[in-house]
Amino acid sequence: MRAPLSMSSSSSVLRDLPVLLVAVVWGSSFLAVQRVAGPGTAVAMLVLRFGLVLPLLGAVAWPALRRLSRAEWLGGGALGLVLSGIFLLETYGAVHTSATNAGLIISLAMVLTPLGESALGRTAPPRAFLAAAGLAVLGVALLTGDGGLRPPSLGDLLVLGAALVRSAFVLATARVRAVRDTDMLALTWVQLAVATAVFAVVAVVVGPSPWTLASSYGPDQWAWLLHLSLFCTLFAFFIQMWAVRATSPSRVSLLLGTEPLWAAVFGITIAGNRMGPLALVGGALVLVATEWGRRTAPAPRQAEAEAADRESEPAPA
Fold first, then answer.
1. Which of 82, 129, 249, 278 is most exposed, with minimal Cβ within 10 Å?
2. What is the number of other CB atoms lying within 10 angstroms of the CB of residue 112?
3. What is the reported pTM?
């Protein structure tokens, strides 16, 4: 009886580890963005960040792209629009509020996603999972703010919007039937291409052109930009789409919610930031709550979803 349990536990760890790595690289993105962009160049940087990976990914995904149906193109494009909204809200919010508030508010996706999943499925999430998510949010509050928060500002509201849209993106990726069986490389390319197009349109009226920004970069900035493009964008979103198919959106959101913890780690080790006692306690709470939530998250309902799909199909004549 113990062998299947052990195999199941190992399989769960193997599914969760790549998502945790996404949280790590996203945690490094805060520092990377500071090295390559400012308030006036954020959109131009997003064009470069996303645009750099399109030719490489397109060359690999070209055979799969040619096989996409019209419904898959439309479904991927819709997800790309949602993705662009996340980054625009998060980027503009981050430059109009403190890192403390931004880190706490964006982590609320940990709670918003399982609540949204429960609402869509008309089921109540396990109380232990909600408790773990709440503990994680408390930990992030202590970690990012060292116990201190200021009244909400416009930037806070924009980051809250980003958290809401991020939750919607995770839920939509798991539920959009048109892209349920779509090749992940092709779907990633479509999403990134649509998001890049949105950023390019916004860049026309906001800040310098991407080409002007690119010409101003030195070797260090290009290295950080490539890190943002290859790891924080291409790797991260490919793994996220795979994960929501292999596990539940709630588990994905909770694991991604450790992002502020890793941001603090990179800030301390590379940028020389310091953490107070409350922040250290908060970091420990995030780790404990994430593991607790990973173990108590609702199990995937793939079988139920397939059964529902079969029931919704018209009966044969």
1. 278
2. 21
3. 0.74
